[in-house]
From TrEMBL:
The record marks 128 as: Transition state stabilizer. Residues 1-18 form the signal peptide. It is an enzyme of class 5 (isomerase). This is Methylthioribose-1-phosphate isomerase. It comes from Hesseltinella vesiculosa.
Length: 334
């Protein structure tokens, strides 16, 4: 969990390997294109074992692997050309991800303004962290919030603390304060009460770690219950994710592998104490000893609860009368 957020996981993996392979090559470790290729392929295979639910890493690894194979098999290939091509591709992924996020922000803000019950004084609720700290920059769901704020059409943003790892209170709250966006932190169990008592909340916006071909979406644990309460209260429930989060090989959410985290993350609360004015990390146990723990990191929201899926290519909606999205048709049409 040193790196989290599906887009960020992919970018950090690609760039960290770029640094590693460049350093090793400078030290004379690779004498041929095949040696450099073998190292890159082994490293990408290892990196893919880190987080099973976030599909962006697998997508990035597949693209980089194809490039490696192509470069290494070209006439006159050398360790120099293989390493240089990989580094350039990894750096381009960083540039592309930032632009993709900004496109998501624009498309998502446009959709909310068009479909919300009121086009001005919009308030939204978000979950987990989907901003600059979870991507290459700007953000997905938080990027939409940034765009609404930039247009002066956002009245307020609410963020959940996102137990048990508290990405909302530690990261999203920080980004909202830093950007000077009017915001309020709530605990996860307050969401339904918020929608009932604060009717100006027009939408719930979340990110995604994997989107199945039918639109079923795996995201941070607690997302599913937010979709249910959005449906009950008649407000928009929007998923914001780059097209690299879409896995057309996964037919439905039933096929998505859900990562489970250590029990310690649930029974302990981590934070910072300020001793003599200096921040000191600390962890405090909040649960009874010997209690059993179930700690899935993600849940799956079925497509029938999702209003729209916002990508850098545009907004995906369901056909009239359909409960599922046709993600393949959308991607093929763009």
């Amino acid at each position: 969990m040193k790196t989290r957020g599906a887009p960020a996981i992919a970018i950090v993996a690609a760039l960290s390997l770029a640094v590693d392979v460049q350093t090793r090559h400078a030290n004379g470790e690779f004498q041929s294109a095949q040696q450099a290729l073998q190292f890159l392929e082994d490293s990408l295979a290892y990196l893919k074992t880190s987080r099973p639910t976030a599909v962006n890493l697998f997508d990035a690894a597949a693209k980089l692997s194809a490039l490696n194979q192509q470069t290494a098999s070209a006439a006159g290939a050398s360790a120099d050309t293989v390493v240089a091509a990989y580094v350039q591709a990894a750096e381009q992924m960083l540039i592309d991800d930032v632009q993709d996020n900004k496109n998501i922000g624009k498309f998502g803000a446009d959709f909310i303004v068009e479909h919300a019950q009121q086009a001005q004084d919009i308030s939204v609720l978000t979950h987990c962290n989907t901003g600059s700290l979870a991507t290459a920059g700007w953000g997905t769901a938080l990027g939409i919030i940034r765009d609404l704020h930039k247009r002066q059409q956002l009245t307020h943003a609410y963020c959940t603390e996102t137990r048990p790892y508290n990405q909302g209170s530690r990261l999203t709250a920080y980004e909202l304060v830093y950007e000077q966006i009017p915001a309020t932190l709530i605990c996860d169990s307050m969401a339904s009460a918020l929608l009932k008592l604060r009717p100006n909340v027009q939408a719930i916006i979340v990110g995604a770690d994997r989107v199945a071909a039918n639109g079923d979406t795996a995201n941070k644990i607690g997302t599913y219950q937010l979709a249910i309460t959005a449906k009950h209260h008649g407000i928009l429930f929007i998923v914001a994710a780059p097209s690299t989060s879409v896995d057309l090989l996964t037919a439905t959410g039933k096929d998505i592998v859900i990562e489970e985290r250590p029990a310690e993350e649930l029974v302990n609360t981590s934070g910072v104490q300020f001793l003599d004015g200096k921040p000191t990390p600390t962890s405090v146990r909040t649960a009874a000893q010997h209690i059993g723990v179930w700690n899935p990191s993600f849940d799956v929201t079925p497509s029938n609860l999702i209003s729209a899926i916002v990508t850098e290519r545009g907004v995906v909606v369901k056909q009239p009368g359909q409960d599922a999205f046709d993600m393949a048709a959308f991607l093929q049409s763009q």
